[in-house]
């Protein structure tokens, strides 16, 4: 009997740690915009720069999640990296509107409480996603816009930047080209695809099982002054609820608003019983396609499943889970 | 045989007109806000004024629908009447924000095309619902905000009004009372219920079978400058799609945004197979109640069924169908 007990001990011991402490589940997915992004139009240098920035953004969120931090903090950290990079159309590097100004939109949502914060049409805050977070945490409101949002950001001590900080030559050139196209009555098809897209976003599941989503954007080149897209609209470009999923979208914002895309994906999981993958895929590939709307989403559910469907040539994207394996992709 | 044929003719004839020309189906429902509206707090004079204004708004939409006009036109016409009345918190009579200014939000959505238009935080347009309609009809955008939206309204020739036009003494008093309450650290419960509510909206089905929804509001008294509520957010306070329903909401806007209420009702009809009545009732009475959110919705489906659930003491509301019978109600 003693021998049997000893044998049992020998065989049981190696597997005990995993019984006592189940492997943590967490995950993070990010996007940096979708569009006509093909190998043919991308230099190796540019590709490397995007891959490095996406990896840095993923890493900022991953470190927090691995240490037991919240999905909200991870989402904000990943987005801040992309807002600070001039490569993406959010924060620094934002697209210019028809008046040659930048107007930034952002939103964040907490899947545990379904609380949310958003800002639209703000011009001077370095990190709109952090101002959106403060709207959620420190006001009774969900969305602040324009001057009122600026005043709130200043009162909260957020970093204020000059027009020069946000200025990037390629976005300016994009505006000039687009305005020339319109002056010369050249067809919409000659508009650079790049002008229509560009948004950054993140979705995460933390070790406590809570989901969060965030999105930040400069909108698109030559948009009307005051135009608000889907990114800061809860249910359209940004949505999170623990009983369904967390979603951040990128693409033709007006179409995403009309179809209430992020909440649509959650609703199909809740009421049609679809998996995250099927709900996200069908919404992007069929529902959006049916109204000629290009773009994609990133989504994660409470079990850490990730879906990143897009109906364009490419989408800057990345994901990482508890295994610590970083996956960064650009093309289809 | 001749006699039988004659008899058949006699019995068939009276029902023939309804076979050749089926009775038209159309309908309109409106609301003027929900809250602690009880008989005890309402004078006969005030009640009569509200009933008259609601009837006038219903009639403006009804006339158009009866003549074969579109649900979009009927929704806009009904809302314009309520925006122009100082009784309702929309257009003239709007609530003041913390800075003593009015900032107006509105949205309209076409159930046939699922196109939509919205404005937020505008200060001078007499009829925000008409500016929202113009955003839908004359731009590629869904939402314009603040200065950009103002500039668009002026460029489109919309009537611009002074601060004095929008000013109503009772709203101003409501602001002063609320600010005094906060200065004296008196509890939220002493805040007048009236300050938290007030929005106008309309939903309609026209003879062509098309649905539309619209909502317009001044938000609530002492809101932060730049605060945007659910009214102009497609999916939250306003939504229409022919395959489901048209919805306009009123209540604690932030909660309606977090639950994406209008699109939630449509989703439960689409994916859970609920009737309009059950989907609207459960969302307002259970889902909103669960997060302590007060308010209500008006909703109509493609068969002309109307639902108007609210979880408050009262909701200014009215409906009329093809029978021409006007129903105007205030209390539970």
Tally of individual helices of chain A: 12
Work out the count of structural domains of chain A.
1
User: What is the assembly state of the chains in this entry?
Assistant: homodimer
Distance between the termini of chain A: 61 Å
Percentage of residues in strands of chain A: 15-25%
Gyration radius of chain A, rounded: 21 Å
Broad CATH class of chain A: Alpha Beta
| Helicity range of chain A | 25-40%
Structural class of chain A: alpha+beta
Biggest interface, and residues per chain? A-B, 46 and 47 residues
CATH topology of chain A: Glutamine Phosphoribosylpyrophosphate, subunit 1, domain 1
Number of strands of chain A: 13
Calculate the mean pLDDT score of chain A and round it. Answer: 93
Question: Overview of this structure, please?
Answer:
2 copies of one chain form a homodimer. With 332 residues, the first copy, chain A, is of the alpha+beta class. Chain A has a single domain, classed as Glutamine Phosphoribosylpyrophosphate, subunit 1, domain 1, CATH 3.60.20.30. Helices cover 39% and strands 22% of the residues of chain A. The first copy, chain A, is built from 12 helices and 13 strands. Chain A has helices at residues 2-12, 16-20, 44-66, 71-84, 128-138, 146-155, 163-166, 169-183, 193-196, 253-259, 261-272, 276-290; strands spanning 27-35, 104-110, 116-122, 143-145, 200-205, 211-217, 227-228, 238-240, 245-251, 295-301, 306-307, 314-321, 327-331. In chain A, the strands form 2 sheets. An 8-stranded mixed beta sheet of chain A has the order 4-3-2-6-5-1-12-13. A 4-stranded antiparallel beta sheet of chain A has the order 8-9-10-11. The longest helix of chain A is centred in the first third of the chain and has 23 residues, at 44-66. Chain A is globular and about 70 Å long. Mean pLDDT of chain A is 93; it is low at 12-18.
């Amino acid at each position: 009997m003693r021998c049997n007990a000893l044998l049992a001990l020998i065989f049981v011991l190696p597997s005990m740690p995993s019984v006592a402490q189940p492997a943590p589940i967490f995950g993070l997915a990010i996007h940096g915009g979708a569009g006509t992004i093909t190998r043919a139009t991308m230099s190796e240098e540019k590709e490397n720069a995007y891959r490095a920035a996406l990896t840095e953004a993923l890493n900022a969120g991953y470190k927090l999640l691995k240490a037991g931090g919240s999905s909200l903090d991870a989402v904000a950290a990943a987005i801040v990296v992309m807002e600070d990079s001039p490569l993406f159309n959010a924060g620094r590097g934002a697209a210019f509107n028809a008046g040659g100004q930048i107007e930034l939109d952002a939103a964040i949502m907490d899947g545990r409480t379904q609380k949310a914060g958003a800002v639209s049409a703000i011009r001077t805050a370095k990190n709109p996603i952090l101002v959106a977070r403060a709207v959620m945490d420190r006001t009774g409101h969900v969305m602040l816009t324009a001057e009122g949002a600026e005043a709130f950001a200043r009162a909260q001590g957020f970093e204020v930047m000059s027009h020069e900080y946000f200025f990037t030559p390629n976005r300016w050139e994009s505006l000039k080209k687009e305005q020339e196209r319109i002056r010369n009555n050249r067809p919409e098809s000659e508009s650079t695809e790049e002008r229509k897209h560009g948004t950054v976003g993140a979705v995460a599941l933390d070790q406590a099982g809570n989901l969060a989503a965030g999105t930040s954007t400069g909108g698109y080149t030559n948009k009307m002054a005051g135009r608000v897209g889907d990114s800061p609209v809860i249910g359209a470009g940004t949505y999170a609820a623990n009983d369904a999923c967390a979603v951040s979208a990128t693409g033709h914002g007006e179409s995403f608003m009309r179809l209430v895309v992020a909440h649509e994906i959650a609703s199909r999981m809740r009421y049609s019983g679809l998996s995250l993958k099927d709900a996200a895929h069908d919404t992007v590939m069929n529902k959006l396609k049916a109204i000629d709307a290009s773009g994609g989403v990133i989504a994660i559910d409470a079990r850490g499943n990730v879906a990143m469907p897009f109906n364009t040539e490419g989408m800057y994207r990345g994901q990482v889970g508890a295994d610590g394996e970083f996956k960064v992709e650009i093309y289809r």
